[in-house]
User: What shape does this take?
Amino acid sequence: DAKTTQPTSMDCAEGRAANLPCNHSTISGNEYVYWYRQIHSQGPQYIIHGLKNNETNEMASLIITEDRKSSTLILPHATLRDTAVYYCIVISLSGNTGKLIFGQGTTLQVKP
Amino acid sequence: DAGVTQSPTHLIKTRGQHVTLRCSPISGHKSVSWYQQVLGQGPQFIFQYYEKEERGRGNFPDRFSARQFPNYSSELNVNALLLGDSALYLCASSLRPSGELFFGEGSRLTVL
Assistant: This one.
Protein backbone atom coordinates (compact mmCIF):
# COMPACT_ATOMS: atom_id res chain seq x y z
CA ASP A 1 0.00 0.00 0.00
CA ALA A 2 1.26 3.46 -0.91
CA LYS A 3 2.60 5.79 1.75
CA THR A 4 0.85 9.09 2.46
CA THR A 5 2.14 12.44 3.71
CA GLN A 6 -0.03 14.92 5.59
CA PRO A 7 0.67 18.16 7.45
CA THR A 8 0.93 17.62 11.18
CA SER A 9 -1.62 20.25 12.12
CA MET A 10 -3.98 22.85 10.71
CA ASP A 11 -6.30 25.51 12.06
CA CYS A 12 -9.62 26.55 10.59
CA ALA A 13 -12.16 29.21 11.58
CA GLU A 14 -15.61 27.97 12.46
CA GLY A 15 -17.97 28.23 9.49
CA ARG A 16 -15.17 28.34 6.94
CA ALA A 17 -14.11 25.53 4.63
CA ALA A 18 -11.36 23.25 5.92
CA ASN A 19 -9.08 21.92 3.18
CA LEU A 20 -6.88 19.04 4.28
CA PRO A 21 -4.18 17.97 1.80
CA CYS A 22 -2.62 14.56 1.36
CA ASN A 23 0.27 13.48 -0.84
CA HIS A 24 0.37 9.90 -2.17
CA SER A 25 2.84 10.12 -5.04
CA THR A 26 3.46 6.35 -5.19
CA ILE A 27 -0.21 5.39 -5.48
CA SER A 28 -0.95 2.50 -7.84
CA GLY A 29 -3.75 2.32 -10.37
CA ASN A 30 -5.90 0.00 -8.27
CA GLU A 31 -5.45 1.83 -4.96
CA TYR A 32 -8.18 3.92 -3.41
CA VAL A 33 -7.83 7.00 -1.21
CA TYR A 34 -9.73 6.71 2.07
CA TRP A 35 -10.23 9.36 4.75
CA TYR A 36 -11.00 8.68 8.38
CA ARG A 37 -11.12 10.98 11.35
CA GLN A 38 -10.72 10.38 15.05
CA ILE A 39 -12.29 12.68 17.57
CA HIS A 40 -10.55 12.64 20.93
CA SER A 41 -11.09 9.40 22.88
CA GLN A 42 -13.34 7.89 20.21
CA GLY A 43 -12.80 5.25 17.56
CA PRO A 44 -11.93 6.37 14.01
CA GLN A 45 -14.85 7.33 11.80
CA TYR A 46 -15.03 6.69 8.06
CA ILE A 47 -15.53 9.89 6.06
CA ILE A 48 -15.19 9.25 2.34
CA HIS A 49 -13.18 7.41 -0.28
CA GLY A 50 -12.42 7.66 -3.99
CA LEU A 51 -10.43 6.15 -6.83
CA LYS A 52 -9.95 8.89 -9.40
CA ASN A 53 -13.15 10.92 -9.62
CA ASN A 54 -14.09 13.60 -7.14
CA GLU A 55 -16.54 12.38 -4.54
CA THR A 56 -19.04 14.12 -2.26
CA ASN A 57 -21.21 12.89 0.56
CA GLU A 58 -23.04 14.45 3.46
CA MET A 59 -19.85 14.86 5.45
CA ALA A 60 -17.24 16.05 2.99
CA SER A 61 -15.88 16.29 -0.53
CA LEU A 62 -12.81 14.53 -1.85
CA ILE A 63 -10.84 16.09 -4.66
CA ILE A 64 -8.25 13.84 -6.34
CA THR A 65 -5.76 15.35 -8.77
CA GLU A 66 -5.71 14.05 -12.32
CA ASP A 67 -2.38 12.28 -11.81
CA ARG A 68 -3.77 10.86 -8.53
CA LYS A 69 -0.61 11.79 -6.66
CA SER A 70 -2.43 13.99 -4.19
CA SER A 71 -5.89 14.68 -2.83
CA THR A 72 -7.74 17.18 -0.67
CA LEU A 73 -10.49 16.53 1.82
CA ILE A 74 -12.87 19.46 2.08
CA LEU A 75 -15.17 20.09 5.01
CA PRO A 76 -17.35 22.85 3.51
CA HIS A 77 -18.49 24.54 6.73
CA ALA A 78 -16.31 23.45 9.62
CA THR A 79 -17.82 23.36 13.09
CA LEU A 80 -16.17 22.96 16.48
CA ARG A 81 -17.24 19.30 16.42
CA ASP A 82 -14.99 18.75 13.40
CA THR A 83 -11.92 19.20 15.59
CA ALA A 84 -10.18 15.84 15.22
CA VAL A 85 -7.22 13.97 13.77
CA TYR A 86 -7.79 13.30 10.07
CA TYR A 87 -6.12 10.31 8.44
CA CYS A 88 -5.52 9.87 4.71
CA ILE A 89 -5.02 6.18 3.82
CA VAL A 90 -4.28 4.53 0.48
CA ILE A 91 -5.32 0.90 0.06
CA SER A 92 -5.94 -1.68 -2.60
CA LEU A 93 -9.32 -3.33 -2.20
CA SER A 94 -8.39 -6.46 -4.10
CA GLY A 95 -7.16 -9.08 -1.68
CA ASN A 96 -7.22 -6.51 1.08
CA THR A 97 -7.05 -7.97 4.54
CA GLY A 98 -8.84 -5.09 6.22
CA LYS A 99 -5.47 -3.65 7.13
CA LEU A 100 -5.45 0.12 7.22
CA ILE A 101 -2.09 1.81 7.70
CA PHE A 102 -2.67 4.91 9.80
CA GLY A 103 0.06 7.53 9.76
CA GLN A 104 0.23 10.44 12.18
CA GLY A 105 -2.62 12.23 10.42
CA THR A 106 -3.48 15.93 10.49
CA THR A 107 -4.77 17.43 13.70
CA LEU A 108 -7.44 19.91 12.67
CA GLN A 109 -8.34 22.54 15.23
CA VAL A 110 -11.53 24.45 14.43
CA LYS A 111 -11.57 27.75 16.28
CA PRO A 112 -14.54 29.97 17.13
CA ASP B 1 -28.97 0.36 14.73
CA ALA B 2 -26.33 -0.75 17.17
CA GLY B 3 -22.80 0.06 16.16
CA VAL B 4 -19.71 -1.94 17.00
CA THR B 5 -19.68 -2.65 20.72
CA GLN B 6 -16.60 -3.45 22.75
CA SER B 7 -16.13 -4.61 26.32
CA PRO B 8 -14.81 -3.80 28.76
CA THR B 9 -14.37 -0.07 28.10
CA HIS B 10 -11.58 0.30 30.64
CA LEU B 11 -9.47 -2.19 32.54
CA ILE B 12 -6.32 -2.29 34.60
CA LYS B 13 -3.98 -5.29 34.71
CA THR B 14 -0.55 -6.00 36.10
CA ARG B 15 2.49 -7.23 34.22
CA GLY B 16 2.38 -10.93 33.41
CA GLN B 17 -1.39 -11.21 33.52
CA HIS B 18 -3.55 -11.97 30.52
CA VAL B 19 -6.53 -10.09 29.16
CA THR B 20 -9.50 -10.88 26.94
CA LEU B 21 -11.22 -8.12 25.02
CA ARG B 22 -14.55 -8.64 23.30
CA CYS B 23 -16.16 -7.17 20.23
CA SER B 24 -19.62 -7.43 18.70
CA PRO B 25 -19.78 -6.28 15.07
CA ILE B 26 -22.58 -4.44 13.38
CA SER B 27 -25.39 -6.83 12.50
CA GLY B 28 -24.71 -8.40 9.12
CA HIS B 29 -20.99 -7.63 9.16
CA LYS B 30 -18.86 -10.73 8.79
CA SER B 31 -15.42 -9.16 9.04
CA VAL B 32 -13.77 -8.00 12.26
CA SER B 33 -10.41 -6.27 12.60
CA TRP B 34 -8.41 -5.38 15.69
CA TYR B 35 -6.13 -2.38 16.11
CA GLN B 36 -3.86 -1.14 18.88
CA GLN B 37 -3.49 2.59 19.45
CA VAL B 38 -0.75 3.78 21.74
CA LEU B 39 -1.13 7.30 23.07
CA GLY B 40 -0.11 9.90 20.52
CA GLN B 41 0.05 7.51 17.57
CA GLY B 42 -2.30 6.26 14.89
CA PRO B 43 -3.94 2.84 15.23
CA GLN B 44 -1.83 -0.20 14.29
CA PHE B 45 -3.33 -3.28 12.66
CA ILE B 46 -3.24 -6.46 14.73
CA PHE B 47 -5.64 -8.98 13.14
CA GLN B 48 -8.46 -9.35 10.69
CA TYR B 49 -11.00 -12.18 10.70
CA TYR B 50 -13.56 -12.95 8.03
CA GLU B 51 -16.01 -15.80 8.20
CA LYS B 52 -14.21 -17.10 11.30
CA GLU B 53 -10.86 -17.38 9.54
CA GLU B 54 -7.78 -15.23 10.06
CA ARG B 55 -7.24 -13.16 6.91
CA GLY B 56 -4.47 -10.86 8.05
CA ARG B 57 -2.01 -10.39 10.86
CA GLY B 58 0.09 -7.38 11.77
CA ASN B 59 3.55 -7.27 13.26
CA PHE B 60 2.66 -8.32 16.78
CA PRO B 61 4.18 -11.09 18.94
CA ASP B 62 2.54 -14.46 19.49
CA ARG B 63 1.31 -13.22 22.87
CA PHE B 64 -1.50 -11.66 20.86
CA SER B 65 -4.18 -13.99 19.56
CA ALA B 66 -7.76 -13.66 18.42
CA ARG B 67 -10.70 -15.65 17.23
CA GLN B 68 -14.09 -15.10 15.66
CA PHE B 69 -17.20 -16.95 16.71
CA PRO B 70 -20.08 -18.30 14.59
CA ASN B 71 -22.12 -15.18 15.40
CA TYR B 72 -19.18 -13.11 14.04
CA SER B 73 -18.29 -11.62 17.41
CA SER B 74 -14.61 -11.70 18.25
CA GLU B 75 -12.16 -11.90 21.11
CA LEU B 76 -8.64 -10.52 21.35
CA ASN B 77 -6.40 -12.23 23.88
CA VAL B 78 -3.09 -10.90 25.12
CA ASN B 79 -0.90 -13.07 27.35
CA ALA B 80 2.04 -12.17 29.58
CA LEU B 81 1.16 -8.49 29.58
CA LEU B 82 3.95 -5.93 29.35
CA LEU B 83 3.86 -2.27 30.31
CA GLY B 84 4.08 -1.45 26.60
CA ASP B 85 0.76 -3.19 25.95
CA SER B 86 -1.00 -0.26 27.59
CA ALA B 87 -3.11 1.17 24.80
CA LEU B 88 -6.55 1.68 23.35
CA TYR B 89 -7.64 -1.51 21.58
CA LEU B 90 -10.03 -0.85 18.75
CA CYS B 91 -12.32 -3.28 17.00
CA ALA B 92 -13.75 -2.56 13.57
CA SER B 93 -16.30 -4.43 11.51
CA SER B 94 -17.17 -4.40 7.83
CA LEU B 95 -19.36 -6.27 5.39
CA ARG B 96 -16.39 -7.62 3.51
CA PRO B 97 -12.67 -7.95 4.25
CA SER B 98 -12.03 -4.71 2.39
CA GLY B 99 -13.98 -1.50 2.25
CA GLU B 100 -14.90 1.00 4.88
CA LEU B 101 -14.47 -0.07 8.47
CA PHE B 102 -16.78 0.85 11.31
CA PHE B 103 -14.91 1.23 14.59
CA GLY B 104 -16.06 0.76 18.14
CA GLU B 105 -15.13 3.13 20.94
CA GLY B 106 -12.34 0.85 22.09
CA SER B 107 -11.15 -0.85 25.25
CA ARG B 108 -8.55 1.12 27.17
CA LEU B 109 -6.03 -1.21 28.78
CA THR B 110 -3.61 -0.01 31.43
CA VAL B 111 -0.82 -2.37 32.48
CA LEU B 112 0.86 -1.56 35.79
Notes: The CA atoms of residues 12 and 110 of chain B lie 5 Å apart. The longest strand of chain B covers residues 87-94.
